[in-house]
Amino acid sequence: MSFEYSEYLIHRQWMMKALQLAKFAGDAGDIPVGAVIVNSQGELIAEGENRKERDCDPTAHAEIVALRRAAKRLQNWRLHECTLYVTLEPCPMCAGAIVQARIGILVYGVDDAKTGAVRTVANIPDSGASNHKLRVIGGILESSCRQQLQEWFANRRHSTT
């Protein structure tokens, strides 16, 4: 990873907050993904967790919820001085929204081998369709993020059999 240890500790702190939000989403019946947005001064601007099931909204991913809240709070859709932390690599919809919001830094926990659109399956931020250069840091608290998702899906499969 290309950053100082002190920066890693900050990323770890915010990812732990995102993991707490993900747990809340999972406990409420949604896939456990959490997101937080922090400004350049290190202040929490917005948070979100998956709400697709609760809101009956296919766009209510953690990242989208957090982006909407951050833009509303800052009264600006351009979030170029913000860092978005999310427990799972964003899907194509979320990666597109992150680019559109001009997020400064994206930090995510675990790769998504099925729909990851930042590094794993597709690379929307670095594609010709992107009009914004996004700094991406993956793998922060990767094992904790992976374990939370795996346990949630295992419990879900167990409860439906």
TrEMBL record:
Cofactor(s) for this UniProt protein: Zn(2+)
Protein name in the entry: tRNA-specific adenosine deaminase
Residues that, per the record, bind Zn(2+): 61, 91, 94
Known catalytic reactions: adenosine(34) in tRNA + H2O + H(+) = inosine(34) in tRNA + NH4(+)
Quaternary structure, from the entry: Homodimer.
Task of the protein: Catalyzes the deamination of adenosine to inosine at the wobble position 34 of tRNA(Arg2).
Record's keyword terms, sorted: Hydrolase, Metal-binding, tRNA processing, Zinc
Active-site feature positions: 63 (proton donor)
One Pfam family of this chain: MafB19-deam
Cofactor note: Binds 1 zinc ion per subunit.
Domain CMP/dCMP-type deaminase intervals: 9-131
Highest rank taxon of the organism: Bacteria
PROSITE patterns (UniProt xref): CYT_DCMP_DEAMINASES_1 (PS00903), CYT_DCMP_DEAMINASES_2 (PS51747)
EC number per UniProt: 3.5.4.33
GO molecular function: tRNA-specific adenosine-34 deaminase activity; zinc ion binding
Keyword Zinc: yes
HAMAP family: tRNA_aden_deaminase
Family statement drawn from the similarity comment of this UniProt entry: Belongs to the cytidine and deoxycytidylate deaminase family. ADAT2 subfamily.
GO biological process: tRNA wobble adenosine to inosine editing
Keyword Ubl conjugation (UniProt): no
